[in-house]
Every structure is written in C-alpha cells, then in structure tokens.
Amino acid sequence: MLRKQFVNPLFKVLGWDIKNEVGNAEAYKDVIYEASIKIGGSTKAPDYCFRSSETPKFFLEAKKPVVRQAWLVPRVGKARDHALAALVRGPEAG
C-alpha cells in the first residue's frame, strides 16, 4: 500500500518511469523492483533500484513503520558504491 499510495506517485511526479510506460526492455528500464545485488556473501533485494542509462543511481527501501530494516539501506548503498540509498517508512498507525 505504501508503494501504490506514496512512493510510486512521488517518483512518477519526479520524472521516473515507474511502470515502464515507455515499454523499454528489462535492461533499459528506469526502475527495477527488487533487483538482486550482492552484499558480502549474500544476496539482497532492495524494493527499488533507480537507473539511468542502465547504471544504478540509487536504491530505495519502502517499509511499514513497524518493520525494522533500516540496517539494509546503508549496506546496499555502500555495497554498490553509491552515495545515496533511502528508506521510506509509511505513516504510523493509530
């Protein structure tokens, strides 16, 4: 729900082709969902990989407020030698 109501609309407004409306082949998509990346000896899959000209530019992890995966964000960014990796948390329930 966080993706559909907040993340996808936000990045669409920012100019990213979130739904691949252009119809690019997999290798040329702007946004890859749950792209597999190696971190140390294991494989992780951040929610979003934003790319430009086939090159990953940054990763985004979108989680409910109760999910404690903030540790993943800096590890993903560092593993891919990116200066930016972001965690988006939905609104608190209640």
Task: Describe the protein's architecture and organization.
The chain is of the alpha+beta class. It has one domain. The protein has helices spanning 2-13, 72-79; strands at residues 31-33, 37-39, 42-44, 48-52, 55-63, 85-89. It has a four-stranded mixed β-sheet with strand order 1-4-5-6, with helices on both faces. It has a two-stranded antiparallel ribbon with strand order 2-3. β5 (55-63), α2 and β6 (85-89) form a beta-alpha-beta unit. The longest helix is centred in the first third of the chain and has 12 residues, at 2-13. The mean pLDDT is 77.
Give a quick set of tags describing it.
94 residues; alpha+beta; 4-stranded mixed β-sheet; 6 strands; globular
Task: Outline the fold blueprint.
Blueprint: H1 2-13, E1 31-33, E2 37-39, E3 42-44, E4 48-52, E5 55-63, H2 72-79, E6 85-89
Parallel strand pairs: 5-6
Antiparallel strand pairs: 1-4, 2-3, 4-5
Helix content: 10-25%
Count of individual beta strands: 6
- H-E string: HEEEEEHE
Beta-strand fraction estimate: 25-35%
Radius of gyration: 13 Å
Overall geometric form:
globular
Global mean pLDDT: 77
Give me the side-by-side strand order of the main sheet: 1-4-5-6
Count of alpha/pi helices: 2
The number of distinct structural domains comes to: 1
Low-confidence stretches: none
User: Between the first and last Cα atoms, what is the distance in angstroms?
Assistant: 16 Å
Q: Largest beta sheet, briefly?
A: 4 strands, mixed
Which class best fits the helix and strand makeup?
Answer: alpha+beta
